[in-house]
Amino acid sequence: MARRPDPARDRTLEKLDADLLADPARSTEDDRRKMLELIVRSDNQLMAALRGLRSLALPDWRVASHSICYSVWSALAGPPVTLRRPVLYISYYDATQPTKRMENTTARNTEKILSETGYLIRLENQARAHFRGMMGSDLSTPGITCTDEWILRSPITALAVGVRLEGDGRLSVFAPYGLSALFSMQIIRNPAFGDEIAYERNKETLLRLWPSLHTT
After folding, report:
1. 134-180: per-residue pLDDT in tens?
2. Cα separation of 193 and 189, whole Å?
3. Fewest beta carbons within 10 Å, which of 64, 165, 166, 179?
């Protein structure tokens, strides 16, 4: 299901200056963080999902990766016409879930809570990342100790952004490489990510959705 037009969101973002936000010489990281929060809070679909996830109280959770790119790049360049239904990438860290069966139970509960949001749900417990080979990288990758460490190892720096809606309504943002690449719509490889195949797969997916992305 494609995102429906949202006139209120469009009015809120009509003065968005993408060129200004993309230029580190003309805007600050604080400027970009404020605009990211505005975009997220203006995205009714994403906010509904964040509120649902907050109610689940998953340990150390964030919405990250392509989900944040989708919201920001849709605001900057319009939603991709080739994507019928966006994917919500949710990561959490729970070392008390030693089995895939327990992880699957959490996934079913999450899908039930978020069933009205219109997203396809992709939920991953990063405490079990070594069993998955770190999103396609080799199994020799050192184990992950928290969700933010998984975000730190994203294949593309623009994907290395995670958000969480806190209990007091604050929006917690983790962006270890900053937000300049996200707002400049650039695909920049994360040097900390060593899997060439996984990097190329992520790049091709993003370029298929937004052909105007800049590559380096």
Report:
1. 444 443 455 789 999 999 999 999 999 999 999 999 999 999 999 99
2. 8
3. 166
Question: What is the domain range of residue 29?
Answer: 17-215
Structure tokens that stand for 42 in this block: 């203006």
- Which residues, listed in sequence order, are joined to residue 81 by a DSSP beta bridge? none
| Residue 202 placed within a domain | yes
3-state secondary structure of 154: coil
Q: In this predicted model, what pLDDT tens digit does every residue of 90-135 receive, in sequence order?
A: 999 998 876 778 888 999 999 999 999 999 999 999 988 755 544 4
Q: Is residue 185, in this structure, part of any structural domain at all? A: yes
Domain annotation covers residue 3: no
Name the domain count of the chain: 1
Residue 11 lies in a domain: no
Considering all CA atoms of the chain, what is the largest pairwise distance in Å, rounded to the nearest integer? 50
